[in-house]
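REQUEST ID: PR-0412
SUBMITTED BY: lab tech R.K.
PRIORITY: routine
TASK: structure prediction, single protein chain
INPUT:
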Amino acid sequence: MTIRFIAASRLPTPWATFTMHGFEDEATGKDHIALTLGDVAIGEPVLGRVHSECLTGDALFSMRCDCGYQLQEALKRIAAEGRGVLLYLRQEGRGIGLLNKIRAYHLQDQGYDTVEANEHLGFGADLRRYDLCVPMLEHLGVSSLRLMTNNPRKVDALTRDGVTISERVPLTTGRNPHNEHYLSTKAGKLGHMMALDDFTPAGDVDIERKP
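STATUS: complete
OUTPUT:
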């Protein structure tokens, strides 16, 4: 695999001004980014998250999942700590792509759960890969992560690919009436280590309403 660093720039956000690092996967043509804050290359475990793209949750404020809430909470925690890294990987819909994700949502509207919908379309429940994290973290000088995730499979996959995970940090936020079944399915069928009672409720989105 060839992951090529392209460029870095400042990225001001509501929580902190991060440095955004752009990478290209030459095999697939996909672009991935890393956001860093503070000195992440000092050899100590770094608070971090490996976040897979979710256009609907991250950018369109969807309440069907917890992805957007997790993204914001991870950035808030990194900002509060003053040091950390977030890898943003372009593997929408647990690896099936945006249009297939919409097809899966259509099936969920008919009563399928998130795993059944993917499998009905002929995909595995989770097709994401994490080996591309290794060269990105090496470029950043990160040798160990305190990983914010509820997914032990992600911890296992990253470990197999050569990433040292010193600690799994739970990330339970964004529960709402639209995603409770989704969260239960992730726990029951995908092995995510969480219970609905662990979650902080989703806050209201402050949207200006024009007359």
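NOTES: Confidence is low (pLDDT under 50) at residues 204-211.
REVIEWED BY: pending
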